[in-house]
Amino acid sequence: MFEVEPVEKQQPQGRPAGVDKTFRVFDPHQVLLLPPSLDDWLPQDHLARFVADLVDEVLDLSPVLADYTEKRGYPPYDPGLMLRLLIYGYTTGVRSSRAIERKCADDVAFRFLAADQAPDFRSISRFRRRHLDALADLFTQSLHLAQKLGMVKMGRVALDGTKLEASASRHKAMSYGRLIDKEERIEAEITALEVKAHALLADAEAADEAEDQTFGVNGKEVDLPTELDRREKRLAKMQAARAQIEAEAADKARAHAEDKERRRQERAGSSDEQAVADAGEKAAATARPKPKAQANFTDPDSRIMKNSDGAYIQAYNAQAVVDEEHQVITAADVTCNPSDALNYTTMLDQSAANTGVHPKQALVDAGYCSETNLQAVRERQLACGTDTFMATGRLAHDEQVPPAPRGRIPASATLKERMARKLRTKPGKAAYSRRKAVVEPVFGQIMTCQNGRQLLLRGEDGARGEWRLLAACHNLRKIFQHAGTTGLAALAG
Questions:
Q1: For residue 157, which of 2, 40, 265, 359 is within the disulfide window of CB 3.0 to 4.6 Å?
Q2: For the region Disordered, what residue ranges are annotated (predicted)?
Q3: Where are the beta strands (DSSP E) in 307-461?
């Protein structure tokens, strides 16, 4: 009826019309998308193959297997399978048990390691907690493997610490002063609720109707026994936190008094251990915590610490000794004390015990500088031959170390002055300038590549075990980068 202009036929969007090209076959509905053999899923030089060979042929699994003594019950997952998943997960930054469970379905490398099985997150979490000590022992095994490959020279090591976020919020902490006030308030509330409950129960015994009105479905809005139970549990937690703060204050006062008495006896040329013990007990008995001393209800072992960014976090202080040659960690530990100064001797001793060799040089930053440690530096050099370069203060940004003064060192110079002068010499500057290049990249790799900024396990033992597992996986990654599966096969043979 009406005259309409002809419309050109539109080509479907996507491929341009007239393309004459043969493409590779793509059929999403084909029966098998992956190769029929698990061994064909990954390249030969993949990290997952390295982890599989490591667990199957190299690592000593006897500490884990020795824990399985009960024959009854449903068969658990093979420990080798679980170790494969945990080591690969901690090496690649997948540490959560739920994340590992998801990866066993979504990620080819995890499916390869699990032989297409899929352990649930509860099994993974229970295995990690149950065998935490054995998993932490993987650190020494990884270190010995690196030694066999010639990756640990112990010519120069660097000691440093970093703050790891605990699995707890700092907002769940309470100061000692506030604990006292809160305890008194809750105790008063409990007393009032008990009086009210006894009165209501007496009325309930007199008449069933009163009892129904008090505790029935349509009775009072507040269930007094439940309220009492909640407050009593809260009070018990607060009392435990208060006792922890008081015990820590007593231990600190005891240690300080004992050290002070020993130094007094040294000056007097005498030695009386009973007097030292008595001084410590007297100080502990009279010690009182500072009002701002805090305890955390979620993870009582963790402490509020200041991190490198200047922020205050609920954390643990993780320590590491790193060998310069290939940045292999030779000692790893965790403490609840924010200060690094208490760890100089223990960490270098642990490094020597793990490797069987004392380092020729040790580089330590200003956080470890104390009169006790400077004296330990001198003793360690005489006993073990370790030459320690310990910073005595922090430099401002872009501040240069001044040259050492000419002439002999004054006889009256203190240990700190002697160390400061040592660092201002050309050999001292050259040695200490390597500190950051040795240890700081290791912390950076653990934080980024292994997602190790925050701990998943609570308690000091849990934090220590997880930090050593992270250190072990760092060393294993270094071994993989240095030797690959070929070097590992030689160790297995």
A1: 359
A2: 208-227, 235-303
A3: 312-323, 329-335, 361-364, 387-390
Compute the distance between CA of residue 79 and CA of residue 363 in angstroms, rounded to an integer.
39
Q: Residue 319 region, left (φ>0) first, then alpha (ψ -120 to 50), else beta?
A: beta
**What does DSSP say about strands 387-390 and 361-364: parallel, antiparallel, or unpaired?**
parallel
Alpha carbon distances (Å) from 347 to 150, 213, 333, 489 = 22, 66, 8, 32
The Cα 439–Cα 411 span in angstroms is 35
CA dist list (Å): 62 to 88, 133, 137: 20, 12, 11
Task: Give the Cα separation of 475 and 462 in Å (integer).
Answer: 20
Residue type, 19: V
What secondary structure letter does DSSP report for 270? Answer: -
Which helix (H) or strand (E) covers residue 481, if one does? helix 460-492
CA torsion 468-470-472-475 (nearest 10°) is -130
Q: In terms of C-beta density within 10 A (0-12 exposed, 13-18 middle, 19 or more buried), how is residue 266 classed?
A: exposed
CA distance 319 to 76: 35
Helix, strand or coil, per DSSP, at residue 312:
strand
Residue 459, by phi and psi: left (phi above 0), alpha (psi -120 to 50) or beta? left
Closest of 403, 493, 492 to residue 58, by C-alpha: 492
Residue 143 corresponds to which amino acid?
A: L
Residues shown for the chain: 493
> Rounded to a whole number, what is the distance in angstroms from the first to the last CA of the chain?
91
pLDDT, residue 390, reads 93
**If you ran DSSP here, which 8-state letter would residue 66 be given?**
T
> In this structure, what token pair is assigned to residue 67?
């824990």
| Residue-wise DSSP of 439-455 | HHHHHHHHHHTS--SB-
| Selection from 208-217, 254-263, 364-373 with the highest mean pLDDT | 364-373
pLDDT tens digits, 171-180: 766 665 655 6
How far from 320 is each of 328, 333, 335, 464, CA to CA, in Å? 10, 7, 11, 12
Which segments within 106-155 are labelled E, that is strand? none
Lowest mean pLDDT among 124-133, 302-311, 405-414: 405-414
